[in-house]
From TrEMBL:
<dbReference type="InterPro" id="IPR001640">
    <property type="entry name" value="Lgt"/>
</dbReference>
<feature type="transmembrane region" description="Helical">
    <location>
        <begin position="52"/>
        <end position="72"/>
    </location>
</feature>
<feature type="transmembrane region" description="Helical">
    <location>
        <begin position="20"/>
        <end position="40"/>
    </location>
</feature>
<keyword id="KW-0812">Transmembrane</keyword>
<keyword id="KW-0449">Lipoprotein</keyword>
<comment type="function">
    <text>Catalyzes the transfer of the diacylglyceryl group from phosphatidylglycerol to the sulfhydryl group of the N-terminal cysteine of a prolipoprotein, the first step in the formation of mature lipoproteins.</text>
</comment>
<dbReference type="GO" id="GO:0005886">
    <property type="term" value="C:plasma membrane"/>
</dbReference>
<comment type="similarity">
    <text>Belongs to the Lgt family.</text>
</comment>
<dbReference type="GO" id="GO:0042158">
    <property type="term" value="P:lipoprotein biosynthetic process"/>
</dbReference>
<feature type="binding site">
    <location>
        <position position="150"/>
    </location>
    <ligand>
        <name>a 1,2-diacyl-sn-glycero-3-phospho-(1'-sn-glycerol)</name>
    </ligand>
</feature>
<dbReference type="Pfam" id="PF01790">
    <property type="entry name" value="LGT"/>
</dbReference>
<comment type="pathway">
    <text>Protein modification; lipoprotein biosynthesis (diacylglyceryl transfer).</text>
</comment>
<keyword id="KW-1003">Cell membrane</keyword>
<dbReference type="GO" id="GO:0008961">
    <property type="term" value="F:phosphatidylglycerol-prolipoprotein diacylglyceryl transferase activity"/>
</dbReference>
<feature type="transmembrane region" description="Helical">
    <location>
        <begin position="131"/>
        <end position="149"/>
    </location>
</feature>
<feature type="transmembrane region" description="Helical">
    <location>
        <begin position="209"/>
        <end position="227"/>
    </location>
</feature>
<protein>
    <recommendedName>
        <fullName>Phosphatidylglycerol--prolipoprotein diacylglyceryl transferase</fullName>
        <ecNumber>2.5.1.145</ecNumber>
    </recommendedName>
</protein>
């Protein structure tokens, strides 16, 4: 069978001046937060919440995402190594086999999700906002941010799919010469669609009761379980497992989403002030 493949070998950087380089992944990571900021700010205006709180919310969520995602990778995917090199969890360089500046390589979305939830609990306690309200607002933009980040993964030729003969296969030349599923692109498209679906629902039925938080984590992690079947394992220990670590970690999120949707399905619409403030 003749396969029409996409030969994928982009530069790591959009701009490289020698002394400064703007990497595609960094650009998409920034776009994820900028787009999320714009959408959540619009929701704050809609519900009459002081927009000045957006700066504090951004700090909480960014730190929660990065810390959670980093710890998630180190604990769930590479615990054996980092248990022996704990300083490398928080330092952007390695000591062995030689000193090398690496940056923070390794972020796990499941850990990032947990980090976001913890940061929102702390934020709501400090600024006296209803937790379910804030969970709905952030859940609205989680798939949007995830879509941009997966595009960054695509540009980095990482989190690649398994070999395939589909006509839209990608050959990630930085990895090998084998046609593979562009799993990062599948996830990005799916997350954009989830964002569009939930945004339309929120616009039509603005309950802000926690139901949409449950819906988002249910949809995202259901898709995550499915797409993992056509992705290469992220760690060697996953080889031969019936479900890989990404799928195992997705199950609690799916169950949590189902429970929340069930409990919040009949939550009455509230006034803007009652929704936002405790």
């Amino acid at each position: 069978m003749v396969v029409d493949t996409v030969l994928w070998d982009p530069s790591d950087s959009l701009i490289d001046l020698g002394f400064f380089a703007l990497r595609y992944y960094s650009m998409f990571f920034l776009l994820a937060f900028v787009a999320s900021y714009i959408v959540v700010k619009k929701q704050f205006v809609k519900y009459g919440i002081d927009v000045a709180l957006m700066d504090s919310l951004t700090v909480y969520v960014v730190l929660g995402t990065l810390i959670g995602a980093r710890l998630g990778h180190c604990l769930f995917y590479d615990f054996r190594y980092y248990s022996q090199h704990p300083l490398e969890i928080i330092l952007p360089f390695t000591f062995t086999p030689e000193f090398k500046i690496t940056g923070f390589q390794g972020l796990a979305s499941h850990g990032g999700g947990i980090g976001i939830m913890v940061s929102l609990v702390l934020f709501c306690r400090k600024f006296k906002l209803k937790l379910w309200f804030m969970l709905d607002q952030i859940a609205l933009v989680v798939p949007l941010a995830g879509a941009f980040i997966r595009l960054g993964n695509l540009m980095n030729s990482e989190i690649i799919g398994k070999p395939t003969d589909v006509s839209w296969a990608f050959v990630f030349l930085k990895i090998d010469d084998i046609p593979r599923h562009p799993a990062q692109l599948y996830e990005s498209i799916a997350y954009f669609l989830i964002f569009g679906l939930v945004y339309l629902q929120v616009s039509r039925y603005p309950k802000a009761s926690g139901f949409y938080f449950g819906m988002v984590i249910f949809l995202i992690f259901c898709f995550r379980i499915g797409v993992e079947f056509i992705k290469e394992d992220q760690s060697a220990f996953e080889a031969g497992l019936l479900l890989n670590m990404g799928q195992i970690l997705s199950i609690p999120f799916i169950l949590t989403g189902l429970v929340i949707m069930y409990l919040k399905r009949g939550a009455p619409e509230e006034t803007e002030l009652k929704i936002a403030r405790q």
